[in-house]
Design a protein that fits this description.
heterodimer, A: alpha/beta, three-stranded mixed sheet, B: alpha/beta, eight-stranded mixed sheet, 6 helices, 11 strands, globular
Chain lengths: 218, 232
């Protein structure tokens, strides 16, 4: 069966390693923070100037001066720090953040990503996405395999305006875990009960399928 | 050196039609609320506003959009605002969208006397169009230029009469960078204290960057997305 959003978040959480600083985008990526594997210690960075982000505050304890990049009220954990926006992007550009997880509208087989603009529709802006994808060493995209019209989001070439080129290393969808190596998607794992045929049929870009594709262990 | 001005109206003296302003804040967090209300009152038009976001309908920079005082916005993300969308789609409002890290660094560079810098952000995208490109360490970068403003308007938690500022939590964001990049920098603070009261070890923005400081009134500090969890 295909995963739900929580399943995608749980699978991505398995990628976390001890001691990493991690930037989570809005949407499914935010959920990853709820499923940190036991024995793993990570710190979450929010590009508006917070390191050591904690959970949402208890009712009545919200602080208007303490928000995340999605403008949601948050808390901090022991060891947290605050800094300005230039220092925040110094952390990102300077590759001090080990993992970036973000959503996408399209990903191409050479690792291009489009997630900020649909021509003809209201343009809201790229926020920090272009800085994040241009600099992060390790980028995981969390997204659904197909768009609402049923078209594959894993493409030969992106059709929408790009956010970054050749930067995505791994994609986790409701159907599969895929790695991008040398201009092709490589099928690494499939969601429990999902067939390789279904993944092949829903992937437009070049897909390399090994003889044996293990199921995700969630 | 005493940087204190009597009130917000005096603080904004000299802002004229067509000027470029920087306004600190991320979303509605750490925005100079008092100054924005006063800008609406003063009614100066054709302003270019450099601010990470554009407020929401009825609050923050959304107020200056409603009164049609802004000619151009330079921002990284401008969601959450119907009036903004209407003016942008009708062509009344010019909009320059910049990656957030580049926007922050362009303000910092403006204040630091660095005219331009190379960054990988935006390479291969429409942001790179018309910009110089150069490869460093095997990776392509684009040239981004510094930003300065006629006036930078920032908001701090505490400030002293010498213009030293301390920000609170994530309300710091763009404020220290813009404070550096204004020809005249105006700081509105929640608490104004005599020089010598704040610990010099704890100052975020040294007073050299601030020309005018005043204590703001009745900060609303509106929350854009109130997210909470229940106590078990």
């Amino acid at each position: 069966m295909a995963l739900d959003k929580i399943g995608i978040a749980k699978r991505i959480a398995q990628e976390l390693r001890n001691g990493w600083y991690v930037n989570l985008g809005i949407g499914i990526p935010t959920l990853v923070a709820n499923y940190i594997p036991e024995g793993i210690e990570v710190e979450f960075q929010s590009e508006n100037g917070v390191l050591g982000m904690g959970p949402f505050p208890f009712e009545g304890e919200e602080d208007a001066d303490l928000i995340n990049a999605g403008k949601q009220t948050i808390t901090t954990l022991p060891g947290a720090s605050f800094f300005d926006s230039a220092e925040s992007f110094a952390m990102i550009r300077g590759q001090h953040v080990q993992l970036t997880v973000l959503g996408a509208m399209e990903v191409s087989q050479n690792g291009d990503i489009a997630n900020w603009k649909i021509p003809g529709k209201m343009v809201k802006g790229m926020g920090g996405a272009m800085d994040l994808v241009a600099s992060a060493d390790n980028i995981i995209v969390a997204m659904m395999h197909s768009n609402k019209a049923g078209e594959s989001k894993l493409l030969i070439n992106c059709t929408l305006p790009l956010t970054g080129v050749g930067c995505v290393k791994k994609v986790v969808t409701e159907l599969a875990v895929l790695e991008i190596i040398d201009g092709a998607f490589h099928l690494i794992e499939r969601a429990p009960g999902v067939s390789v045929e279904e993944i092949v049929s829903k992937t437009e870009g070049l897909l390399i399928v090994p003889e044996f594709v293990p199921e995700m262990q969630l | 050196m005493d940087k204190v001005v009597a009130n917000v109206s005096v603080a904004l003296d000299g802002i004229e039609d067509g000027m470029t302003l920087m306004l600190g804040g991320f979303g509605l967090c750490g925005i100079p609320e008092n100054s924005i209300l006063e800008l609406v009152k003063k009614g100066k038009k054709n302003l270019t506003c450099i601010s990470n976001n554009a407020g929401v309908d009825g609050f923050g920079l959304g107020l200056l959009l409603e009164s049609k005082q802004i000619k151009k916005m330079i921002s990284s993300y401008v969601g959450e605002n119907d009036e903004f969308e209407r003016q942008m789609l009708s062509g009344e409002l010019e909009v320059d969208l910049i990656p957030q890290g580049s926007l922050a660094e362009r303000c910092r560079a403006g204040g630091a006397g660095i005219p331009a810098f190379y960054t990988p952000a935006g390479f291969g995208t429409e942001v790179a169009e018309g910009k110089e490109m150069r490869t460093y360490n095997g990776k392509p970068h684009i040239l981004e230029t510094a930003l300065t403003a006629d006036f930078a308007i920032v908001k701090a938690w505490k400030g002293d009469t010498a213009g030293n500022l301390i920000y609170k939590a994530s309300a710091r964001n763009f404020n220290p960078l813009m404070a550096m990049a204004g020809k005249i920098t105006i700081a509105e603070v929640e608490e104004l204290v005599p020089a010598g009261t704040l610990d010099p070890n704890q100052i975020h923005t040294p007073g050299i960057f601030v020309q005018r400081i005043f204590q703001g009134k009745a900060f609303e500090k509106r929350i854009e997305q109130r997210t909470v969890r229940k106590k078990d």
